[in-house]
Structure formats: C-alpha cells, structure tokens
Design brief:
With 260 residues, the protein is of the alpha+beta class. The chain has two domains: 2-108, Alpha-Beta Plaits; 111-248, Pseudouridine synthase I, catalytic domain, C-terminal subdomain (Alpha-Beta Plaits, 2-Layer Sandwich). It is 20% helix and 30% strand. The chain contains five helices and ten strands, in the order βαββαβββαβββααβ. Strands 1, 2, 3, 4, 5, 6, 7, 8, 9 and 10 form a ten-stranded mixed beta sheet that branches. A hairpin with a 2-residue loop joins β8 and β9. The radius of gyration is 19 Å and the shape is globular. It starts with a strand and ends in an 8-residue tail after the last strand.
Length: 260
C-alpha cells in the first residue's frame, strides 16, 4: 500500500513542484520530510507539475519506499498530517492522509482538476495580494466581465488546445475536455475558474491572458472558437503571470473526499 496525501502550498519560495537539482521545490521538501518522519528514503509522486511561483489549494501525492510500491509505518493515518507538518516549512501543509493500493497513480488516475486564476483589479497595489494575484490596474467594468464570461464558456468542450499551449512545448496529443469555465468578481478580485480532464503547459495562464484581451476589446468573444481551431499559439493572448495561478481541486473516482 502507498500513502496518499492531500496538501496545499504557497509557491512563492519554490521553483515549482518538481525536483530540479539543488533548486528549492515542493517535491524536494516533501521528500526530505518523509525521509525524516518514516526513517527511509521515499519516492514522492505528484498529481501534476506546477511552475515557479504557482500555488496549490489542493495538491495530491503518493509516498512509497524508494524502489517500492509500499510504505511501512506504525504511525496511524490520522496522525500522519500533523507529524509530517512538523517536518515541513510553514508554506507547505498536509491536510489529510490515507493508504491506497500500489497500482494507484496520483497523476494518471485523476478524473479532473480545477484551477483558479486570481486577478487583483485595482488602480493601486495591495501588499496582501503580492505574489498571490496578478495586479491588473485598469478597471474592468461589468460589460468587460460579461464579455470575459461569454468567452470563458466557449472554452468548454473537447478541443485541441494547441493554441493555448506554451510555444515550444511538446505533447503527443493536445486534446483536452474542459467541463467548466467561468469568470466572477468579488470586490477587487476577479477569479477565472476552469476544470478539465487535463491541462497543457501554461494552458490556464494563456486562457487568462486571452480573456484579458477580450476584456480590452483586442479579441472578440466570437473569435474564441476560431482561435481554438487554428492550433496556433500566436492567435491567443499573452501568458498571464504565474503567481496568480492556483491548482484548486483534484478529483479521483476511487478516492472520495469524504473518506479522508
């Protein structure tokens, strides 16, 4: 049996999730903490890769002994989150834990993921939103938000999203199914939410940049289907900054939330 963890982290201090040599990463901190707690070298496998500065309200990993599909420990499941958090920095926190079969894979067994992109829409910056939202000072009125919402809904469906993938990135297939996309405002914060069965490199950030182009009148709502069909990165908007992006939810068919 592997150990399955749900955690959250503030990505500001890290060069993304994935281990990159001696650079500070979330995976590196988890690997160190698990080795200290369980007294053995561990393999940590994540549900996704996140870029430098990207955050996670929910991120899922499995933990197994190095070279194995199992983890042996006498620590009860309910005590593992608190025990691990004692070995982790304050910007990473394990919320819950359970054991899953050795065949389970936190990335390939995902049913869908949801991302949130946060835009702080105010003429003056907020110190509390620093590195946690994209500061966009030009006021976006109700008409601009309505256009963003109409454009966001056109992302839904099964499409080849090559136009919304970072230039130079390579994948075998760029087809993804977006099940939900919406834009809403809460005070000075605008949130773009999008759920899909998978995401391409920089996909949500390019979607967000395209929505801003729609709000600015540079791209019309009705152009979104044509941009998707073009499979051409140059047709979409800019890539929004990393620090406004949050992996918000990761859903599995065989791991109900209520069991944790």
């Amino acid at each position: 049996m592997k150990l399955f963890l749900r955690l959250s982290y503030l990505g500001t201090a890290y060069n993304g999730y994935q281990v990159q040599g001696d650079q500070p990463t979330v995976q590196r901190e988890l690997t160190r903490a698990c080795a200290e707690l369980f007294g053995q070298r561990c393999d940590i496998v994540g549900c996704s890769r996140t870029d430098s500065g990207v955050h996670a309200n929910m991120f899922c990993v499995t933990v197994a002994k190095k070279g194995s599909d199992e983890l042996q420990t006498s620590i009860p499941e309910y005590r593992i989150p608190l025990a691990l958090n004692a070995h982790l920095p304050e910007d990473i926190s394990v919320a819950d834990a359970c054991f899953v079969s050795g065949e389970f894979h936190p990335r390939y067994d995902v049913k869908y993921k949801e991302y949130i992109y946060r835009i702080y829409n105010s003429p003056t910056r907020s110190p509390f939103e620093r590195d946690r939202a994209w500061h966009y000072p030009k006021h976006l009125d109700d008409a601009a938000l309505a256009n963003m919402q109409r454009a966001a809904q056109l992302y839904c469906g099964t499409h080849d999203f090559t136009s919304f993938m970072a230039q130079g990135a390579t994948v075998a297939h760029a087809v993804r199914t977006v099940t939900h996309a919406s834009v809403c405002r809460n005070g000075d914060v605008i949130e773009f939410r999008v759920a899909a069965d998978g995401f391409l490199y920089n996909m949500v950030r390019i979607m967000t940049g395209t929505l801003i182009a729609v709000a600015e009148g540079k791209i019309g709502c009705q152009q979104i289907p044509d941009i998707i069909a073009a499979k051409d990165r140059s047709r979409a908007g800019m890539t929004a900054p990393a620090h406004g992006l949050y992996l918000n939810s990761v859903v599995y068919e065989n791991i109900p939330k209520e069991t944790l």
